[in-house]
Structures are given as structure tokens and as C-alpha cells.
Amino acid sequence: MRRGVDLFFLLHGDHPTLPAGEVRAILEAEGFSYRVKEGLPQVLRCKVIRSCVPAISKRAYMTRLCAEEILVAEDEPTEILRGLEEAFASGRVEVQGSFSVSLRRVRRSAQDIDLKVLRQRLVNLISSRTGAEVDLEHPGTRFIGLFSGDLFLFGRVLTEISSKRLSERRPSRRPFFHPTALHPKLAGCMVNLTRASPGDLLLDPFCGSGSIPIEAGLLGCKVLGSDIQPLMVRGSRVNLLHYGVRDFHLLLADARKLPFAEVDAIATDPPYGRSATTMGVPTKNLLEDFLHSAAEVLERGGYLCTASPTELGLADLGRGAGLKVVESHIILVHGSLTRELVVFRRG
Ligand SMILES: C[S@@+](CC[C@H](N)C(=O)[O-])C[C@H]1O[C@@H](n2cnc3c(N)ncnc32)[C@H](O)[C@@H]1O
Fold first, then answer.
1. CATH architecture of 166-346
2. Contact, 216 vs 223, CB < 8 A?
3. Ligand 1 pocket mutation pick from 185, 206, 226 by most atoms within 8 angstroms of CB
């Protein structure tokens, strides 16, 4: 941390808390100590060592970019320009060859500011101070300015993360399709929330068509998957092989009596009797029995990430099984369904 720098992460806007939780979980999984400085709409500001960036680039499903902070100012053009002048004066701005500047508003912030005009003024200032030229195609240094809440953050982009890589893994593109399948974005985020690292053994005991095992396998985890329906176990196998995951074991098992010795992490999406079957077991009983069994199988200090409809009180059910609640996120699925995603830790 002594060598930490100020970074900010631009997060996906489709969930208010999960993307920041995912960044923190990745930093913890990879052993980077960090300090959260501030959470703004769609932005997380942290003090952390710069070498965490490749791990974020590789693992994050809900982050758009990461930048090294140069300036934080009120969202007012004269303040912004004055702040950038000061940043030059104190040697905090460097340009390697050419540069580009892009500006974005998070949600509807700073509506009264003309971004084109401000961008040109920032470009003029950087050019005049450094003599560097603008190159929008292949800039040596990319600057980003973000308006979020009532602040403006300006920084040097360290990585941009495209979601395009996920499109080939979305449920409709898999050889075995099931309507209950999770999108890779949520499946991968759940894997990250377990703080699993490559080489760890991760279990999904309601594996369905394999969404979570696929993302865990691509991260480099050893994967264990099980389901009570033979069709799902077969389908998961087909999907895992299709995406090149090889280090996995799948079996037919009831998640209420898990036949495993010890696993490092559990990420799973249990059924709740609407589109996915509970095989006639009341959902709350199924969850309770699963959580008790999971608490025996999970190694001490290991994390479990799972979700259920809010009214079932998942966090309390987990506590009843002896697990500690680390974090909880509410997901609005549609008008009549809200889910709670909880991360537990075995003490
Ligand atoms: C919501 S689906 C999982 C979907 C999966 N995450 C995916 O993306 O394809 C729930 C799964 O739990 C399985 N299931 C139901 N009761 C079970 C039990 N007692 N033990 C293990 N699996 C069970 C169902 O067969 C179903 O495949």
C-alpha cells in the first residue's frame, strides 16, 4: 500500500452495488491491499498498487475501464482547467508521444456543461504544455474525464475492458441451451465474489447448464459441478468442453447432501420453483439444507456466493447454518421478482 497510487474504475451502470463489490473481491482474491477512497455513481476510487490492473483487466465482468487519477475537481470548467494547470505544475501529467482526451457523463451529471467545448480546452492546454499532438486512433496516452455526481475525475487510462468477449458465451450461443441459464456476466461476477484464484477448487452444486463452471474454468479454477437432473449434468459437460474447459468433474448429486470432502469456494444459483425446478421441495427447505451441507464442505475462510428471492431471507438462512455474511446485493429481476445475492464466509 505504501507504493499505492490513486486509481478510479468506471463501472457498469446496470447495477448499483455489484460492480464495485466485484472490483474489491478481485483485489482481495489476488492479494492486493487497497483502500476505497470513495464510491460515486458508477465510479470507484481506490488507493492500490498499479500492478493490480492486469488482474482487473483479466477478471472483471462489470468494469469498463481503470485510470490513474490526475485530478478530482468540482464539475465546473474553470475549476477543471485550473486543476489541470496545477497538475502540470506539480508534474502529475505525462504524455508519451501523442494523446487523446475523451469525456463522459455518468448518468445525467453535468448536463449544463458542453463536453465538446471543454474537451477542446483540455486538448489545447495539454498540447500547449507538452507540445504533443492529438491522435485519436493510436494515442500514446489516453486521458479520460468523467462527470459523476457533482465531481469531475480526470485520469490516464490504464485499461479498457470490452464486454464483447462475453457474447460468444451467452446462453443462446451455447451448444446446450436451457432457459434458466445465467448470463456469463453475472456468472463470472459470482465467481469473482467468492475470491477464488486460479488453481482453487470451486463448486457449483446446482450447475444447470454450466454457466458458473464455465467462467470459473476459464479463470483457471479446478471445477466441481453437480445437479440433481442427469440432463443438466450432460448439458454442462457439453458446454464446458465447447468452451475449452478441461479441468472439471461433474456428477449427479443432491445439493442437500453434498458428497464432497473440501472445496475452496462455492458459487451457485439455486432454483426457486418458477422456471427452474426444485423437484417438489419447498424452496426455503431446499436452501436451508443446501446451506448446512455447504458449510460442512467449504474450507475454513472460504467464500460462498449464492442468490435467492428476497422474501426467503437468504442472509439469515446462511447465518443459521453458521456462515458469516460478507456482503449482500439486491437484484431487480422484473416487477414481481427481486433477488438477494449474498456472499458468505466460513469462519
Ligand atoms: C436455476 S438452475 C441453475 C442454472 C445454472 N446456473 C445455469 O446457468 O444454467 C437450478 C438447477 O438446480 C437443479 N436442482 C434442483 N434441485 C436440486 C437439488 N436438490 N440438488 C441439486 N440440484 C438441484 C435443477 O435441476 C436446475 O438445473
1. 3-Layer(aba) Sandwich (3.40)
2. yes
3. 206
